[in-house]
Write a structure and sequence with these properties.
- This protein is an alpha/beta fold.
- 36% of the residues lie in helices and 18% in strands.
- It has one domain: Vaccinia Virus protein VP39 (Rossmann fold, 3-Layer(aba) Sandwich).
- The chain contains eight helices and seven strands.
- It has a seven-stranded mixed β-sheet, sandwiched between helices.
């Protein structure tokens, strides 16, 4: 039998254009985007309990997967997609969802795209293809995929609507697009002073780098406006105290990169230590963001709306 990767995915791969990678910045304490393996660890800083040299971006990615993979896989299991489906994941990170797609559709194909593929194993499955590319310049043939997944990716782009339109052009008639992005709640409403300071510092930084922190709220409407049918939505809360994984992920994130906020004068070392000390307590509990999951189907023909 032909290799399903060759049978279903190589036509699309043949037209992939790879430009110099664009670094997609991390968002707040809920989204992690791994740095390449060769990056040196963050330097130590005199911030008490902070110890950035003891954690790695991969640790954060694995925790992110533990937090959000169950919800994403639940959505994907609902979709009526054929067994030989051709899948594309934009921003594959450490690969958990790409591997899951490959395992659950062994007769299909999966293309995993990221600006940094250092944590992806191209030999993990015979029907998996890993490509290093900037998703804003990568090109696939129209109608190449039956399923496209983009999790915590579009929110980092200066024009997420334009990227959404490009992804839709790669989707085959009858195919499904699943997009998940964060909507960050107002920092001013945080229940503690240190929480307000820390959240505001991250929000300010991300906006300075072009991230659209309100995109998640607009996501369901954007899918419907683009012409997808059967659009559905679900939200997942994120923040201190929302789960044990949330707290562990936030703590790792702060130990890895909290010193940059201190260096920038946005928060003090004492505030960071106070914030970390409140994790796991009733006082430290907060709802900082919602992961908005939205999905829809491309009509079989233009009249199906």
């Amino acid at each position: 039998m032909d290799d399903p990767r060759n049978a279903a995915g190589q036509d699309a791969i043949a037209v992939l254009e790879t430009e110099p990678p664009e670094i997609l910045l991390c968002a707040l304490v809920t989204h992690i985007d791994a740095a390449p393996r060769e990056h040196p660890p963050a330097r130590a800083h005199s911030t008490g309990s902070l110890s950035p040299d003891t954690v790695s971006p991969l640790d954060q990615l694995r925790l992110f997967e533990r937090k959000y993979d169950p919800g994403t896989t639940e959505i994907l299991r609902r979709l009526p997609i054929r067994p030989r489906r051709r899948c594309l994941e934009l921003g594959a990170g450490a690969g958990s969802m790409a591997y899951w797609l490959a395992d659950t559709a062994p007769e299909g194909s999966v293309v995993a795209v990221d600006t940094d593929t250092g944590y992806l194993d191209p030999d993990r499955a015979g029907n998996l293809t890993v490509r290093k590319a900037d998703i804003t310049s990568a090109t696939f043939a129209p109608g190449s995929f039956d399923l496209i997944l983009a999790r915590a990716v579009l929110e980092h782009l200066t024009d997420p609507d334009a990227m959404l339109d490009r992804a839709l052009s790669w989707l085959a008639p009858g195919g499904w697009l699943v997009v998940e992005d964060f909507y960050f709640l107002p920092a001013a409403d945080a229940p503690t002073a240190v929480g307000r300071s820390l959240l505001e510092a991250y929000v300010t930084r991300m906006r300075e780098h072009g991230a659209d922190l309100s995109w998640g709220r607009r996501l369901p409407a954007a899918l419907a406006r683009a012409g997808l049918t059967s659009v559905a939505t679900r939200v997942t809360p994120a923040g201190p105290g929302q789960s044990a994984v949330d707290d562990e992920l936030i703590a790792l994130r702060m130990r890895q990169e909290g010193h940059t906020l201190v260096d920038g004068g946005q928060v003090t070392a004492g505030e960071l230590d106070t914030f970390l000390g409140l994790l796991g307590t009733s006082e430290g509990r907060d709802l900082t963001a919602l992961l908005v999951s939205a999905w829809g189907r491309r009509p079989q023909d233009p009249e199906e709306r």
